[in-house]
Amino acid sequence: MTEPFEQAVQRHGETVLRVCRAVLGPGPDAEDAWSETFLAALRSWPELAEDTNVEAWLVRVAHRKAIDVTRVRTRRAIPTDQLPERPSRETVEGGDEQGVWAAVAALPERQRLALAYHHLGGLPHAETAQLIGGTPASVRRAAADGMKTLRRVYGAQGDAADREPAQQEQVRCEPTHRESTPRTTDGEPR
N or C: which end of the chain has fewer CB within 10 A? Predict the structure, then answer.
């Protein structure tokens, strides 16, 4: 690879961090996966082919590193004292990134991964399907369902802030499912 490694880190670092956060949630685990991704990439950089899609390659490496972090989580002792979450350096002033990340974290795993790899990582549905399994059509559906749920949930949270406390309702993320039983025009099963 003739492109300097530092330029690749600057160009694709934010994308890799977004993917790590989507898979692991915000916090030190995502930052660790980001660091591990670029350490592994640095080792492989000299042998990387010229025609490699660097961003897609880095997203795949990040996916594998995130899986490694989730495996380590199951073996790690759970701390008793909770430290306050540090604000991200990547926040937009006036934005609600923590609310968005919480809504993304509440999605079913398949929808969350499809969103992370396609919308945040920029991978086509076919490559996302190779990473998480299934067909490109099923991954497209999972990403669409996830976006629909986020729009509904995040929009409802914004609307709830404008209502009186007595009128506020609890918002839950639930996967959307279509009925598979054919129905007649009056709603009865066939």
Answer: C
